[in-house]
Structures are given as C-alpha cells and as structure tokens.
Amino acid sequence: MYPFIRLAKESWKFRNAGPLGVGETHVSHHVCWPWDLDLWAELNNGRTLTIYDLGRIPMAQRAGLIGVMREKGWGLTIAGSSVRYRRRVRMMQRIEMRSRVVCWDNRFVYLEQSMWTRNGDCASHALFRSAVTRETGIVPPEDVIAAMGLAIPSPEIPQWIRAWIDAEATRPWPPMQDALPETTRLPA
C-alpha cells in the first residue's frame, strides 16, 4: 500500500519550511519500517522508489510547484528512472534523503535523489525524469517555470544525465517485440 500517512507527515512537517530554489537540496529523514522489507530483510527495491516520493513531493511543495499544479489542474508523473543501489538498508535503520532538481529540457525535469546511512555511506542514488501533465499532455518545463513566477533557464545538463537521455532515446518502444513468436503476439 502507498504510504499516504507518511507522505502527509512529510508534507505537514515541511509546510512552513523555507522556499527551495532550483538546484537547492531538500533534506529529509526516514525510517525503514518492517513493511518496507523484502524477503532478505532489507529495504525492498520497489519500496525504495516509493520512499523517494517522500522526498520529491515535499521538495516540489517547497519550490512552489504543488500550489501552481493545484491552481492549474495539472498533474505530476515520473517518465523514467535509473537507480543505483550500493548499501543495504535494514529494518529500523534511519536514512537521510537528499532531493534536488538538476536541470530540464523541452519536455522533462531531471531530479536526483540519494539515501544516506548514519555512517555516511550512500545506500542508493536515483535519477528521475519527471513531467508536469495536463489533459492535453506534457506541460513544457518553461511554461511550468513561468507559472511559478520564475524566469530562469535550465542549468546545463550534466554529461552523465545527457548520456542517460541519449541511451533512453535509442531504447525500442514498444519493448521486446522480437521476444514473442508471431503467433503469440496480441492483435493491434
């Protein structure tokens, strides 16, 4: 189940936090609860993605995005992600999460998040491609920035994010069409 109560707690906790500018880091603290575990008694990889929401939503709130989205009737979606897992997070272990907007292009905003253990080890690092949406599709980031009352260009896209964007552009869609025999494919 989605951690609605935890998200409400984070939103409440940061409701009066200072505004967050582009590129500034939102820091939050979380606990790995028993229901976050996998069969090996560590933070489940899918749950890791969900817990990253607990940093992204308050970050967007502090940046002023949530208010603009409510006013305009816009939504927010994740359009891609890449996660690097390096250290186990065990039950009841506390982690520090760091979340920030890195840059944007003509369609997507690129965010990075990381989880850190008390001893200073990075447990995981994630890159997310996010989009603000409306009924007609994606809202261009420059329109979102303008709606937030800002007039700033995107920071330069770092080479490692550019490489990921380029790799995603070569990825076939729909995927795995060659993996099924012709007779088992669903009709168009």
Automatic annotation (TrEMBL):
Membrane-spanning segments: none
Matches recorded under Gene3D superfamilies: Hotdog Thioesterase
CDD domains: 4HBT
One protein family per Pfam: 4HBT_2
Name used for this protein in its record: Thioeseterase
